[in-house]
Amino acid sequence: MVLRIGLGLVFIWFGYSGLTNTAMWVNLVPAWTLSIAPAATLVKLHGAFELIGGLLLCAGLWTRWVSGLLLLDLLNTITLLPYGPIMVRDVGLAISLLSVYLYGDKK
Questions:
Q1: How far is residue 33's CA from residue 55's CA, in Å, rounded to a whole number?
Q2: Chain mean position to CA 23
Q3: Which residue among 8, 31, 61, 63 is least packed, with the fewest CB closer than 10 Å?
């Protein structure tokens, strides 16, 4: 439960940041996605996804589904990042999400 809530808070923070400080994140949007929608729109959609996912994790609702979707999303993010401290941090978060996915629904 502690890991689930801790991860939820991380995703709430990043989701909220994507929604309220969009300009900070638009430079990280890959160029190939710009044919789908403008970068700011993609950042806001991603922020909403993370915010909702984080809230659901904290509430303990649909834990397995939410942690699995957030894990897939984070693995996608990891593939876009160059090796460095941010990518290493995200690998640690991904492993934590995998743990919640595998064991988070157990009482």
A1: 27
A2: 18
A3: 31
How many domains in the chain? Answer: 1
Calpha distance 27→67 (Å, rounded) = 26
Which structural domain, as residue segments, surrounds residue 53? 2-103
Q: What is the pLDDT along the chain (107 residues), one digit of tens a residue?
A: 999 999 999 999 999 999 999 999 999 899 999 999 999 999 999 999 999 999 999 999 999 999 999 999 999 999 987 788 888 999 999 999 999 999 976 65
- Distances in Å between the Cα of 7 and the Cα atoms of 11, 84, 99 are 6, 21, 11
Q: How far is CA 82 from the centre of its chain?
A: 17
| pTM: predicted TM-score of the whole model, two decimal places | 0.92
Biggest CA-to-CA distance, the chain: 44
